[in-house]
Write a structure and sequence with these properties.
heterodimer; A: alpha+beta; 16 helices; 42% helix; 17% strand; globular; B: alpha/beta; two-stranded antiparallel ribbon; 6 helices; 7 strands
């Protein structure tokens, strides 16, 4: 059935003319079948001026497929009732194009605040509203709880406050500025999004195989970004439950990784480092030796600190059984990244659809099964340690090549899907060029776009005072969702 | 990016940071403000159409390495408790009213610090119809701190310059480093 869709590979371009354009009903059937019997998932659902596209991922079989239908006049039957994972995607398409998914259970705004948002209200309960401005120094978003005493009967999340118009800006900007925009999708995922962007552009260009040293350095900074954010999240979780030694120490470790990024790239988050065809700074051999030493030391500290944290009974009492996201819920919502891996689902782009250095030097995903705050914390600890080991090994085996090459012209009327395992999960950049080789459509999907509904699901039935902890255990991007 | 399309600078902060319409390196606020905030400054952070980079550097200020509180500076959870506003982001349309309300809720006297390229003039998002192009489009700003994101030490340096910290009478404020 899904042989009707076009098979794809991560970062490998395809002629747009080869994308099958099916009738709406047939297209729907392929998508539903693909995610049902064939055990795939929807990695992207989006529209351009003429067509509606579905990009499916079959992680176990390590393949991707894409198929389209003509934009159906007057709407089409919604996929969401049978496939909750496309809930937000269909709302997004409706908001951007007016294409109505008939029978969608909650067709509400995604990024537009022009009309008053119709929150679901459960009569007789206490309604608690939080945000957009939050108590801490964090991004804006609105949370509306329906509570009975402490118990949360329903949580609805309204985002869009960070909407900066990224996708439209992408199309208006020159190539140089697009790299800056890619780095600015989410400021804590500079490397992840920059890499997804560059793989897309390189995929579309004449020469896309880069020197190994360049690919290796890109992988190293991606893993440094992962380690720094996981350390930061563990510190934040520790702070939230009042375990201050771990909070302070994880915070310091995070700084260590950011400082390494700064010494290599000139910026604590790696801005300016990854550009199409290149990394912009090489690593001198003295710095390589220094980084090997520092990642080794950081790994040792991370192990000690993780023991201190995860073996404290007061920590376990707080984290275990809190904010549980069941495996079936995670799957039905299409959750990606550490949140999925903490609910027993070992999906990871580095393993399932590797690109760049991960095609030759892999990194195995970790998995924890309890789906609670403990599991999401534990996954971060295990992943960070694995990343630090990988970084050390990679630095030891860095080969001597150039760090950049010219990639040539952009191919005309081609498409490319570029997936990267960012620290929050699967990042997808999808690019399509026109008959002059200019980018005509650029779709950005941050892992948070898949995962925000999981936070609402995890809070259902929980205690409202657990919200800060559960929220931090997901730590999703508002900016990445809002674009 | 050049500032030529930036909005006109309101009069309130022309004396402190700009001369003849051109921004200049921060000098101290007037003596009265310095007396009120010089040794205890409580700031409310608002993120308005940002990428979260500046927010993370602002958060880092509270860690054991930078330890903001040893200088008498602290972030607070409510504008009612604050002496000033620290803004990150290009000011998205969707955050305009929340930002204005937060500013209005801070009792006088108050200061406003814009952190990062976006809060200065929209940063990478200049030209987007979804953003207003910087904090000064909504509130009067006393201090702009450049960077993308500014290193935590640069944020500290900016605040120090504004408060005239770490300087002897009659001498310009010394650098933090």
């Amino acid at each position: 059935m899904n042989s009707l869709f076009l098979p794809l590979q991560n970062a490998v371009p395809f002629p747009l003319s080869k994308v099958p354009v099916l009738a709406v009903e047939e297209w729907r059937t392929v998508v539903l079948n693909g995610c049902g019997k064939e055990r795939g998932r929807v990695a992207a659902l989006f529209a351009d001026a003429k067509r509606l596209y579905a990009m499916l991922a079959f992680d176990a079989k390590k393949n991707l497929k894409i198929g389209a239908c003509e934009l159906p006049e007057g709407g089409y039957p919604s996929l969401t009732p049978e496939l909750p994972e496309v809930h937000l995607f269909e709302r997004e398409i409706f908001e951007e194009t007016g294409l109505k998914p008939a029978g969608h259970p909650g067709l509400k705004p995604v990024r537009s605040h022009q009309k008053k948002y119709p929150f679901h209200r459960i009569e007789g309960t206490h309604e608690v509203a939080v945000g957009p401005v939050h108590a801490g120094i964090i991004e804006p978003g609105h949370f509306r709880f329906q509570c009975h005493g402490e118990k949360v009967l329903h949580l609805e999340i309204l985002l869009g406050y960070q909407h900066r118009g990224l996708e439209a800006l992408f199309l208006k900007s020159d190539a140089e500025h697009r790299s800056v925009l890619a780095e600015s999708v989410a400021g804590d995922t500079v490397i992840g999004h920059a890499l997804a962007y560059c793989h897309a552009i390189e995929g579309l260009a004449e020469r896309s195989i880069l020197p190994k040293r360049c690919q290796m350095l890109r992988g190293i900074v991606l893993e440094l970004e992962r380690a720094s954010n996981h350390a930061g999240d563990l510190g934040a979780l520790a702070g939230d439950i009042g375990f201050l030694p771990a909070s302070a120490w994880f915070g310091r470790l995070r700084g260590e990784f950011l400082n390494m990024l700064m010494e290599l790239t000139g910026n604590r988050y790696g801005r300016g480092f990854i550009r199409p065809g290149a990394v912009t700074h090489d690593i001198p051999s003295a710095m390589t030796r220094d980084f090997i030493h520092r990642t080794g030391r950081a790994l040792k500290e991370f192990k000690e600190l993780s023991s201190l944290f995860f073996e404290a009974s007061s920590v376990l009492a707080r984290l275990e059984g809190t904010g549980t996201l069941k495996q079936e819920t995670a799957k039905s919502l299409g959750v990606v990244g550490p949140a999925a891996r903490a609910s027993n689902s070992a999906k990871d782009v580095r393993q399932d659809h590797p690109s760049g250095i991960f095609s030759s030097k892999g990194i195995a995903p970790v998995k924890v099964s309890s789906g609670d705050v403990f599991a999401r914390a534990r996954v971060r600890s295990l992943e960070a340690k694995r990343s630090l080991e990988w970084i050390g090994e990679s630095l030891e085996t860095l080969t001597a090549e150039k760090i950049s090459q010219s990639i040539g012209e952009t191919k005309k009327e081609m498409g490319v899907v570029s997936l990267v395992e960012g620290w929050r999960g699967e990042i997808a950049h999808i690019a399509m060029t026109d008959q002059e080789g200019k980018i005509a459509r650029y779709k950005i999907i941050d892992p948070s776009f898949h995962n925000w509904p999981a936070l609402a699901a995890a809070m259902k039935g929980g205690a409202v005072s657990d919200f800060p902890l559960v929220n931090k255990s997901f730590n999703l991007s508002y900016a990445g969702h809002d674009l | 990016m050049p500032l030529k399309d930036a909005p006109a600078w309101p009069a309130r902060y022309l004396s402190a940071t700009a001369k003849d319409g051109e921004p200049r390196i921060a000098k101290e606020l007037d003596a009265r403000i310095k007396k009120l905030f010089g040794r205890s400054l409580k700031l409310r952070a608002v993120s308005a159409g940002s990428c979260n980079g500046c927010e993370m550097e602002m958060q880092a200020l509270g860690n054991v390495v930078f330890d903001l509180s040893r200088f008498g500076i602290q972030f607070v959870a409510s504008p009612r408790h604050a002496d000033g506003l620290m803004i990150a982001g290009a000011v998205s349309k969707n955050m305009v009213s929340a930002l204005k309300e937060t500013y209005d809720a801070i009792p006088e006297p108050k200061i406003v610090i814009a952190v990062g390229a976006c809060a200065i003039n929209g940063g990478p998002f200049q030209g987007s119809v979804e953003v207003l192009g910087g904090a000064a489009s909504v509130v009067p700003v006393d201090l702009f701190i450049p960077g993308c994101p500014p290193h935590p030490l640069v944020i500290l340096e900016g605040i120090f310059k504004l408060l005239g910290k770490n300087c002897a009478p009659g001498r310009p404020s010394q650098s933090l480093f």
